[in-house]
């Protein structure tokens, strides 16, 4: 059995090596020729999987080790009788940690010692938005959730917990977590268009870790050039990897689509597709991502009562996830030609340094308050008193 796989899928050999022969190819440029003799196709989000890629192949199973599925023509796969699996939720915690890190940076920039004073509007409350909301609520933030598809499915009483998009867009921090959906009752393509961007004010922060196309980026470039623009943090872009350098310059923090790139998140994506493929083939699935995760380089941090709760939390958060480091690397590519910038965008993703989730770090708290312990627990760190 031949498995053709994106070379950026971690642990390909460990998970899939005893299922078939593996041919690794670059996901961005994967062609019909690369897959024509494959039985199984494993991708991440940079490969368009459609009739053009697969019509002349014998592929019977496609797995994407990602949450997003907008690169897959699922309707065509179904019509062609090809089985499909995605990895819902695999890197949801990673994205939630990226957003928490950004909110901590924002509070610091505003000289706000109590970050929970910032209201947070979450647009799309599935695996990522739901995980983020859960953490923020445990921390004591005021969270406003907009998710019309879920609101419609809820009982009347629960539907009251959901706000409209316009209400969510009034929060101090607005963070987008919808899938990219082009059609239907709740399309998200250019959900934030010129008129919605116009309503954002200079004291607001807009974070996009969903898909670049959820914001009309041409309108965003214009809005950011006007007086009193909102602050923006962008991890995802229209036309990746050839992103608009002007938008990178205008963004407060600009990262190369890495919010979900914790090691845990990437490896869980591989594990979920290994499980789905094993089930499809009727094979036992005994391997678990935990057995392949190395010991983290940083495993313990200690704080005493001398450190303020927020200072300690900032240090711990940023020792795991600091989007400013990714921002600096992306900005470095701005002086390059357009082709080189696109290559640099993909290279930064391919060579992404190991990033471990908060749960990999044990926090030792000596003589600190109960409130500090609660904060670290809510963030997902392990606590040692
Ligand atoms: N930047 C990254 O590294 C990264 C990582 C993971 C996921 N993502 C993106 O984030 C998206 C969301 O991930 P998820 O795991 O939460 O997906 P999910 O499917 O679990 O949740 C998405 C939620 O969005 C809601 N939604 C759909 N249309 C909406 C609309 N018009 N307005 C408001 N809400 C709407 C859905 O009802 C659902 O609850 C993914 O589809 C992917 O594109 C990006
Ligand atoms: O949808 C997802 O899971 C994320 O956007 C994921 O991090 C994308 O990573 P890529 O497939 O581009 O490696």
From TrEMBL:
EC numbers on record: 1.1.1.290
Gene Ontology CC terms: cytosol
Principal location class: cytoplasm
All residue ranges annotated as the D-isomer specific 2-hydroxyacid dehydrogenase NAD-binding domain in the record: 112-259
UniProt keyword Transmembrane helix present: no
Keyword Oxidoreductase in record: yes
Catalytic residues (positions): 211, 240, 257
Binding site for NAD(+): 147, 178, 235, 260
InterPro entries to which the protein is assigned, alphabetical: D-isomer_2-hydroxyacid_DH, D-isomer_2_OHA_DH_cat_dom, D-isomer_DH_CS1, D-isomer_DH_NAD-bd, Erythronate-4-P_DHase, Erythronate-4-P_DHase_dimer, NAD(P)-bd_dom_sf, PdxB_dimer_sf
Molecular function GO terms recorded: 4-phosphoerythronate dehydrogenase activity; glyoxylate reductase (NADPH) activity; hydroxypyruvate reductase [NAD(P)H] activity; NAD binding; protein dimerization activity
GO terms for biological process, alphabetical: pyridoxine biosynthetic process
Pathway info: Cofactor biosynthesis; pyridoxine 5'-phosphate biosynthesis; pyridoxine 5'-phosphate from D-erythrose 4-phosphate: step 2/5
SUPFAM superfamilies hit by this protein: Formate/glycerate dehydrogenase catalytic domain-like, NAD(P)-binding Rossmann-fold domains
Positions of substrate binding: 45, 66, 261
Key words, A-Z: Cytoplasm, NAD, Oxidoreductase, Pyridoxine biosynthesis
UniProt subcellular location: Cytoplasm
Superkingdom of origin: Bacteria
Subunit structure: Homodimer.
Biological role stated in the UniProt entry: Catalyzes the oxidation of erythronate-4-phosphate to 3-hydroxy-2-oxo-4-phosphonooxybutanoate.
Similarity field: Belongs to the D-isomer specific 2-hydroxyacid dehydrogenase family. PdxB subfamily.
Protein name (Swiss-Prot/TrEMBL): Erythronate-4-phosphate dehydrogenase
Species for this entry: Marinobacter confluentis
């Amino acid at each position: 059995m031949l498995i053709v796989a994106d070379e950026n899928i971690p642990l390909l050999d460990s998970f899939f090596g005893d299922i078939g022969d593996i041919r690794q190819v670059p996901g961005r440029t994967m062609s019909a020729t690369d897959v024509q003799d494959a039985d199984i196709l494993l991708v991440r989000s940079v490969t368009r999987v459609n009739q053009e890629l697969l019509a002349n192949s014998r592929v019977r199973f496609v797995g994407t080790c990602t949450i997003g599925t907008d690169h897959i023509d699922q309707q065509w796969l179904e019509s062609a009788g090809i089985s499909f699996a995605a990895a819902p939720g695999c890197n949801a915690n990673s994205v939630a940690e990226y957003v928490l890190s950004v909110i901590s940076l924002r509070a610091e920039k505003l000289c706000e010692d109590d970050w929970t004073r910032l209201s947070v509007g979450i647009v799309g409350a599935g695996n990522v938005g739901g995980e983020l909301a859960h953490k923020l609520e445990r921390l004591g933030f005021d969270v406003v959730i907009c998710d019309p598809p879920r609101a419609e499915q809820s009982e009347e009483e629960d539907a009251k917990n959901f706000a409209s998009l316009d209400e969510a867009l009034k929060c101090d921090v607005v963070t987008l977590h919808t899938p990219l959906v082009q059609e239907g009752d709740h399309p998200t393509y250019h959900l934030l268009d010129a008129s919605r961007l116009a309503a954002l004010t200079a004291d607001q922060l807009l974070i996009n870790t969903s898909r670049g196309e959820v914001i009309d980026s041409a309108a965003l470039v214009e809005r950011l050039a006007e007086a009193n623009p909102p602050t923006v943090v962008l991890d995802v872009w229209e036309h990746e990897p050839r992103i608009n350098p002007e938008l990178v310059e205008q963004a407060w923090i600009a990262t190369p689509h890495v919010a979900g790139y914790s090691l845990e998140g990437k490896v869980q994506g591989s594990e979920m597709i290994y499980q789905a493929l094993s089930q499809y083939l009727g094979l036992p699935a005994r391997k678990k991502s935990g057995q392949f995760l190395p010991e983290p380089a940083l495993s313990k941090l200690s704080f005493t009562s001398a450190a303020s709760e927020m200072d300690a939390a900032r240090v711990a958060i940023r020792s795991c996830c600091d989007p400013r480091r990714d921002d600096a690397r992306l900005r470095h590519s701005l002086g390059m030609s357009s082709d080189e910038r696109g290559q640099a965008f993909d290279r930064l993703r391919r060579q992404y340094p190991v990033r471990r989730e908060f749960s990999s770090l044990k926090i030792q708290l000596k003589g600190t308050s109960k409130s500090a312990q609660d904060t670290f627990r809510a963030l997902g760190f392990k606590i040692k008193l």
